[in-house]
Structure formats: C-alpha cells, structure tokens
Amino acid sequence: MNKNEKNMAKGVGDNEPEKEVELNSNETKNPEALSDITEKNLDTKVESLENNADIIEKKVEELGGVEGINQILDKMSEEERKLLQQKIEEQKEIIKESLESLDSSYGGIERKGRFGQHVFTTGNFTDRMWYNSKESLSNILDFSDDDSLTDSVSRVLSDSFFGSIGLSLSAPKKLVDTIIRRIKLSSEKRKLAEMEKQAV
Amino acid sequence: MNEEEIKNLADRFEKGETTKEEDLEIATTINASLELAKFFLNEIKIVKIKQDIIK
C-alpha cells in the first residue's frame, strides 16, 4: 500500500475509516469503476457526516447548548483562551495535512482528462475551502432564510478563531441535512440525465 | 480556486448540478469542519471540568 492509499484508507474525519473504499491500480484504469468508487466514498462520507452531526449535537447538549458554551468561553482567562486557540490551530493543521493527503488520493480518483492524462484539481479547492471555511461554508450553504440559526451562530462566529467551527457547532444536523439534501438532488439529476441519454 | 469559482460551485451545488467528485469534496471539507468542532467541544469539556473544580 503506498502513501496515498494509506491516507485514503485512513479516511479523514470518518468514524469508520475501514469502510473507506481504497483505490487500486486496476480500478483506476476503468472509468466506470472509478465512478463506483466515488459513489461508494460519497455514501461513506454521508454516513460519517450523519454520525459526526449526532456526536456534536449530543456534546453540545451536554455542555448546555451554544449558550452554555458561550458561558464557559466567557469565564476563560486570556491565557486559557490563547492556549485553546493554539490547540485549535494545531488541530487545524493536522486535519489540513490529512486533507491534502486525501487530495492527492482523490486526485487519484483521477479525474482523467480526455486523453487519459491525470488531472489534479482538488488541492486548490480544499485549501481554499479550509482557509476560508467560514466564508466558504456561508457561500456553499445559504442559511439566510433561517434567522434564528444566524443569530445562534453569531456569538460563536464573532470570535474569529472559532469561525470555521461555528456553523458545525450550533446546528450540525441542519448543516448536514442541507449537504445531504443537495448531494441527493445532484445524484437524482445525474440519474435522470443518464436515463434520458439511454432513452435517446 | 478564486471567489468567482467558489460562487459558481455554490450555485451549482444549490441547484444539484455538481459532479459526484465535487459533492465528495464538499462533503469531505464539511466533515473536516465537523471533526474540528468535535475537537473543540472536547477541549471545552476539559475547561468546564476545571472551572467546576475551581468553583
């Protein structure tokens, strides 16, 4: 197993990384197999999103909700806050490094160009998404129709170093539901387009 | 990926016009954000325990 395959198997952010589908050299040569791999990885990721949303919701509840968390944050000394910030930044780097490894692996999902060339497009995407996650999440997920959610996250988001986790923290299920709904929508549209193509 | 491209991706995601690979990337990134949230909550729990002891 090479480095990329190991990273792929590790499955960043997954509760059950062993389910992550690995690439092998035979599968990467077959576009249909690649499509299956993407589909299976997507299913695994959706499952992982749901699990993580459940875990977060329970943890937030244990801590007294967003309000309880805010109270804990308010009681923290400047020194404690700096330490927490440092830990978060370190963890961000760890996760980011794993994502970069996955980028290579997903590049290995190998969007091959028309002439069979390897097309690596993911690195920039993840990098951009990650470093500006607060803005990007807002871009990807328009919650503007839900003022209560906006209000509930505003306090957490007001501290810049919590920015990237604010949305995940205050309404994880809603966040995940939105993502899953849209993934399902695109999946259905693709199936429909495929059926139309076959009908013709 | 610049702002315009992200906006374009977001628009297509909204309309369900993204590819499987793009959906996978978005799900992976969101999941990473959830992982960070879990880490944050664990740290906050430790802080809370310390605060409760001091109290």
Can you characterise this structure?
The complex is a heterodimer of chains A (about 200) and B (about 55). Chain A has about 200 residues and is mainly α. Chain A has one domain (about 5-200). Helix content of chain A is about 75%, strand content about 0%. Chain A contains ten helices and two strands. Chain A has helices at about 5-10, 25-30, 30-60, 65-75, 80-105, 120-130, 135-140, 145-160, 165-170, 170-200, and strands at about 110, 120. In chain A, helix 7 (about 135-140) packs across helix 9 (about 165-170). The model of chain A is unreliable at about 1-30, about 105-135 and about 140-165 (pLDDT under 50). Chain B has two helices and no strands. Chain B is about 85% helix and about 0% strand. By secondary structure, chain B is mostly helical. Chain B has one domain. Classes of the chains: A mainly alpha (about 200), B mainly alpha (about 55). At the A-B interface, helix 3, helix 4, helix 5, helix 6 and helix 7 of A face helix 1 and helix 2 of B.
* DSSP summary, beta strand count of chain B: 0
Main structural class of chain B: mainly alpha
* Helix proportion range of chain B: over 70%
Sheet of most strands of chain B: none
Oligomer: heterodimer
Please give the order of strands in the largest beta sheet of chain A.
Answer: 1-2
Which blocks of ≥5 consecutive residues of chain A have pLDDT under 50?
Answer: 1-28, 104-136, 142-164
Mean pLDDT of chain B: 82
Amino-to-carboxy terminus distance of chain B: 49 Å
Main sheet characteristics of chain A: 2 strands, antiparallel
Number of domains of chain A: 1
Category from helices, strands and their pairing of chain A = mainly alpha
| Mean of all residue-level pLDDT scores of chain A | 64
Query: How many strand segments of chain A?
Result: 2
What global shape of chain A is seen? Answer: elongated
